Amino acid sequence: MVQSLDRSQGRIGGGAANTTAGPVSTYTGNRALQIEEPLIFEMGQPGRCGVDLPEPSKVKDRLNGLKRAGEIGLPGLSEPQVVQHYTRLSQKNYAIDMGVYPLGSCTMKHNPRINEKVARLPGIGDLHPLQPVSTVQGALELIDRLAHWLKTLTGMPAVAMSPAAGAHGEMCGMMAIAAALEARGERAKRRVVLAPESAHGTNPATAAALGFTVKPIPANDRGRVDLTALKAALGPDVAAIMLTNPNTCGLFETEIVEISRAVHEAGAFFYCDGANFNAIVGRVRPGDLGVDCMHINLHKTFSTPHGGGGPGAGPVVLSAALAPYAPYPWIVKDDGDTWRVAEDGAAVDGKPLGRLKAFHGQMGMFTRALSYIMSHGADGLKQAAEDAVLSANYVMASLQDVMTPAFEGPCMHEALFDDSFLKDTGVSTLDFAKAMIDEGYHPMTMYFPLVVHGAMLIEPTESQAKEDLDLFVGALRALAERAKSGTAAEDFKAAPRFAPRRRLDETLAARKPVLRWRPSNNPPEGDPMKQAAE
Amino acid sequence: MRYLPLTPTDRSDMLAAVGAKSVDELFKDVPASARLPGKVAGLPDHLGELEVERAFQAYAAKNVSPSTAPFFIGAGAYRHHVPSTVDYMIQRGEFLTSYTPYQPEITQGTLQYLFEFQTQVSLLTGMEVANASMYDGSTAASEAVLMANRITRRTKALLSGGLHPHYRAIIETTAHWQGYSAVSAKADAEGLEELIAKVDKETSCVVVQNPSFFGHVRDFTKLAAACHAAGALLIVVVTEVVSLGLIKPPGEMGADIVVCEGQSIGNGLGFGGPYVGLFATRDKYVRQMPGRLVGETVDADGKRGFVLTLSTREQHIRREKATSNICTNAGLCALAFTVHLTLLGEAGFRRLAELNHAKASELADRVAALPGVKLLNDSFFNEFTLRLPKPAAPVVEALAEHRILAGVPVSRLIPDDPSVENLLLLAATETATEAGLAPLIAGLKEVL
Q1: B95 in contact with A, Cβ within 8 Å
Q2: How high is the ipTM of this complex?
């Protein structure tokens, strides 16, 4: 049975809530606005189609005898069915547009709609990447304008625009470092990349893909890189350090200048993972910290929509030492104010590392990011970073008596808690996160960074009003107190109750992978679609 | 500033709660030498929405929109009509502003459409299993080679001369820096290359494209058999996914991995990105796949639901032992693909392919009749190669001055090969009209 929650703590206007999602069943399996939805493959009918296309003129095919035989197996749906289907699916998602989305390290800030509008303007959204350059001068200028902002905000002399996401940017930056080492004749001897234990998984994955050996650097008890351990690890075999700053514990690396000096003195490069640039943009330039290259997740700092997991964009700013190795294409301004694209190695002055992506990069993301940047300006970007940091500190301060901050503050843009406040309660970080779902929130990032036990990483961003932060804090306080009451573990284990689905069996999914629909797939027993079909 | 909800009063109240006198105190961990005294210098302040929109209209006005000009450009990105429903659906905030479905209870919308996407991609390619998308076709091709290297424990990839030059460059770049070898055949505009003889015991994979960069449609069944006999894999790249409505799918030719650029379905040209990579393979190789996978399961009440699965391949679990460093992929572009393909369905997708082939056939016949112009293709889908009587690049430039976007000179993509100087790639999709064809033919007559 579902018990109604105690909403007296911190609940603004806290009205009585006697509702229950009890075991009343409906004929359809639906629950008011929660509509059960089959797969398109279970809906289609031959003879239905959601487009009207003209009859093709009859031609003798020139397909070399390779005409496709047999059915593809795609279902036929009309346009209204398609609209209803995907609208219903959309209603099973949580989103930034609905409220606090405190997913640490992911920066779920407001996505302004003007960015969507300008990205779709005729003459921007519909350009072909291989149109003659004389017909895309405005597009090339736009890319260069964004590049100018990125270089100025980071205090770096060059930027490679083509990487498609943060991890792709990491690959680009680490290839540039490998190229610089090769030019020095040191690539064979510098085989080690240092990365803190708290690093994003992409860092060691990238370094390993390029043949480097990854050596972890421990953190000190303040959540920062242990400078002594780092200095001991630096030697003639080290190619680079990959360091996130502010780091994944939400803390600024206080000894960053000493770190970059030691790295450079050892002949190595400093790769900065720019995932958390949003905390300092407009206030601190990574170039002033001795960074050699840094990717910028446009979908984090500059608010291009996360889109259910992409697309992103990961331009990489480069120091003077790495700039000559940037991958092509390069946008070049010639005399007379005309723009061209240097699209291959022979067309550029440097020693480019090669090509990482077809065409010119994620133009649609460039447009949105530039729109966001121009809307904020130098003043607004700085204010946004300050508000993000203030909001995170406010959340940490408001919860520190009931939850356990992993490190002493101030934090930067995200507040990190460990699970020691849940000790002996029978409630895990996972249970706590799932209970947040019932309160109407997307959970925070859980169990990352790995260096903190049962980590809960909360990033409120600058986009939430104080009253919404207060409600969020109130909800977390109530959950923490319930957990600590020692009598609610079973309730927590049963959460979420009010979501479109309850906890899903991930072990079953991995043990018997069903990765596509097949005609023989049947909805499981107990599934409302099964009942509907019968 | 319209995006920032905190008022000055909020900020001072929050600072008081934190116990800080000013926001500067929160940045005290930043070394003094790196603290800027004020804003970043040399950049303008914020703008209202109207000013921002005007600035972008000004950029747009300096370009020639394909909607205002006869248009015949392809070469890896294709102009198709995308139904209004698609763009409406991907702009729903629940899809647009959510992230990777880490919490499946409240992201079933994303997970279910990705499951549908994976099924659609499997069906189109004739393969058993597909992932939840890659950045684009070009990067997916490079990941496919890495996957083949893992499976075969070999390090030599053979690249067809019919492979898109950008794709080839990306594979070569990755090969150079990741320490394996990629041997590229010379670009062959006639499409007559012989790859079977080159497959040996060191070959991890052969990468071919269908239709090829030059437009030829080929059967790779024998090549697949030769690959398998030598213990190598066949990777088939498709840059025009609409072709799969009319052409025998790579899965039926014996391909082991199929990667496609999915842009043509649901996604606009967007000056080159973001697009969506499709990646499909055989069931037996699924654990060596890069990227995310969505699988079916049940919830605590026994109801069907979907989750991210087999993530022990991925970087956030496996770190330096991961199959790929990929994290973010192309979720929203995958949604656009799925919504568009669902609207098309079996009948619509096939008809779309037929329309493309018919339009391209008409274009081919008319340009091939021009004096001095030779059509190099016996076979093609919606794109083909012409040999002009003079270099193609100036011809394209001259037509651009008349606002005719007349294809891609091959020399733009293969600049180091004088033998391709006169070659022009032309594409026609269902968007081609007589109102565009007539000026193209007239323009070519004039400049040739």
Answers
A1: yes
A2: 0.97
